[in-house]
Amino acid sequence: MDFLRELGISKDNSGAYNGEWLACKGEWLESRDPATGKVIGRIRQATGEEYEACVAAAHAAYLRWREVPAPKRGEIVRKLGNAIREKKDALGRLVTLEMGKILQEGWGEVQEAIDIADFAVGQSRMLYGLSMHSERPGHAMRESWHPLGTVGVITAFNFPMAVWAWNSMLAYICGDSCVWKPSSETPLCAIGLTNVVRPVLEAEGFGALATLVIGSGREVGNRFLTDKRMPLISFTGSTSVGKKVAMASGERFARSILELGGNNGLVLLEDADLSIAIPAILFGSVGTAGQRCTTTRRLLVHEKIADEVEKRLVRAYEQVKIGNPADEKTLCGPLVSASAVAEMMDALEQLKKQGGKILCGGERLTLPGAEAGGHFVKPCIARAENHYPIVQTETFAPILYVIRIKNLEDAIQKHNDVPQGLTSAIFTMNVRHAERFCAATGSDCGIANVNIGTSGAEIGGAFGGEKETGWGRESGSDSWKQYMRRQTNTVNWSNALPLAQGIQFG
Ligand code: UN1
After folding, report:
1. Model confidence over 117-168: pLDDT tens digits?
2. pLDDT, average across residues 464-468
3. Domain coordinates of the chain in residue numbers?
4. Which pLDDT does position 1 carry in this prediction?
5. 48 CA to middle of ligand 1, Å?
6. In 222-380, which residue ranges form alpha helices assigned H by DSSP?
7. Which atom of ligand 1 approaches the CA of 423 most closely?
8. 52-86 in b/e burial notation, b at 16+ Cβ within 10 A?
């Protein structure tokens, strides 16, 4: 495949880059196409030794990079964005091949990386600190934002490029370097993207800003958590692993940004405009084969329109073309692995035991050409109650639970009654109901939308959640502050030494 060559991917690849590709000594990892089961390429993983060389190089790069003025750092990030823009087609195809999302979404993911680079360029001239009025005469008070250090970025398979970009582009303009540990399901996406950005950084003498280390949790992941050279760990993944990250980084007083499980609800009130709601639900629940953190998992629909909505959704699901994600007609590609399929089947068993009723889908599929091991399933709609244990859990697969609600109060109560809190949406034409959903007594999620679905956020807003979804925000708004340390400066330019709070001392 030409695009693999274009991205510098061969049959055998190194799993560690720190300004140059290292000769790794770890076990070989195979990357497989989830649509066919065929091996795309192999990666020689890093051991502790290469990990050490990676973090040391990234840290040394940070010590030099922090001295480059922020707008100049932005200039280089602009070149990174342009390099990604030039390879958008190839990178999107690689996402589709290795992760299994359809081409439109593969390109969309790369666009998200380009967008955050553009955002970061502008932000590089806007790392604003406040100035305050001192209570003491002849004193100036202000806060300064300084680079933080080397940022550990651990990403999940489902956004194998964009999430690294959300973190790294901001980290770079803030004066930090990054060490990236991608998911073992999508190592080639990380290698391809690194090959796109590294010529830009190497030309500036800063290749190690984009350090990459591919290895198992045992060899590499655990070292991240305890490594004092990394004052910030940004982790995207499951709630159970996120908890480990929170505790290990908390123990050494490092910061963490945690983007963990979502269980996103979409509220459909009686007056909803179904001509936009149905496509939003379809994209939210079937898009990326239900493997986004932002996937619509719970549909909280008013009982008066529930039958009609179910009917329309089942009809829409029947028309979804399932198949190879590289085929432009496909709407739903495979799940990432055999275990993801097994987890979906297990969730549906539990659902049935707990009283749920499947309305459509939920079967495994063997498609022509995928006999070697494609992981296809039919997206499922099921009637359920919000309190079922399985509904309270995030299953990373296309299962949409339809839950009936009586009114807005009932909807908000049920909506918030799950452990997770990432994204949420309401469809209504009533401005009072819409605003109530976005108010303090409404949705308890990090993101609450009106008349658009739960997934597909733009990079300009801060992205992240509450409760078991974790904490911290990535991409837009003032997320950049997490990648810097704040320093309060009080400068006395008078010839006296007045003390704060009016204290007289001696
Ligand atoms: C994720 O699923 O980890 O809002 C991120 C969205 C995308 C990002 C999802 N922009 O669906």
Report:
1. 999 999 999 999 999 999 999 999 999 999 999 999 999 999 999 999 999 9
2. 98
3. 13-32+40-260+470-487, 264-462
4. 81
5. 31
6. 222-226, 239-251, 274-286, 303-318, 338-354
7. 4
8. ebbbebbbebbeebbebebeebbebbbbbbebbbe
What pLDDT is attached to residue 372? 67
Structure tokens at 479: 């997320």
Within 10 Å of residue 369's Cβ, how many Cβ atoms? 12
Q: Containing H/E element for 376?
A: strand 376-377
The whole-angstrom separation of Cα 419 and Cα 32 is: 33
Residue 371 has pLDDT above 80, yes or no: no
**Across 359-374, average pLDDT:** 86
CA-nearest residue, atom 3 of ligand 1: 293
Among residues 264, 401, 381, the alpha carbon closest in space to that of 318 is found at 381
Question: For the domain with range 13-32+40-260+470-487, which CATH number is right: 3.40.50.150, 3.40.605.10, 3.40.50.720, 3.30.2130.10?
Answer: 3.40.605.10
Atom of ligand 1 nearest to the CA of 291: 2
* CA-based nearest residue to 131, from 146, 122, 141, 119: 141
As a whole number of angstroms, the distance between CA 130 and CA 334 comes to: 49
Q: Which atom of ligand 1 is nearest to the CA of 293?
A: 2
Q: Which of 54, 178, 189, 293 is catalytic?
A: 293
To the query of whether residue 332 is one of the catalytic residues in this protein, the response is: no
Average pLDDT over residues 204-232: 94
Active site residue 438: no
- Report the nearest-CA residue for atom 1 of ligand 1: 293
Nearest to 41 by CA among 29, 56, 24: 29
pLDDT of residue 506: 87
Q: Which CATH architecture has domain 264-462?
A: 3-Layer(aba) Sandwich (3.40)
What confidence category does residue 217 fall into, taking pLDDT thresholds of 50, 70 and 90? confident
Cβ neighbours of residue 227 closer than 8 Å, sequence gap 6 or more? 55, 152
CB atoms within 10 A of CB 346: 14
Whether 264-462 and 13-32+40-260+470-487 are alike in CATH topology: the answer is: no
Task: Tell me the longest C-alpha to C-alpha distance in the chain.
Answer: 89
Sequence length of the chain is 506
pLDDT above 80 (res 308) = yes
Q: pLDDT tens, 327-345?
A: 999 999 999 999 999 999 9
How far the first Cα of the chain sits from its last, in Å, is 80
Look up the pTM and report it. 0.97
Ligand 1, residues at Cβ distance < 6 Å: 112, 158-159, 236, 292-294, 455-457
Q: What is the pLDDT of residue 369?
A: 72
CA of 387 to the centre of ligand 1 (A): 26
Q: Catalytic residue among 50, 105, 185, 259, which?
A: 259
**Residue type for 134, please?**
S
The Cα 65–Cα 177 span in angstroms is: 8
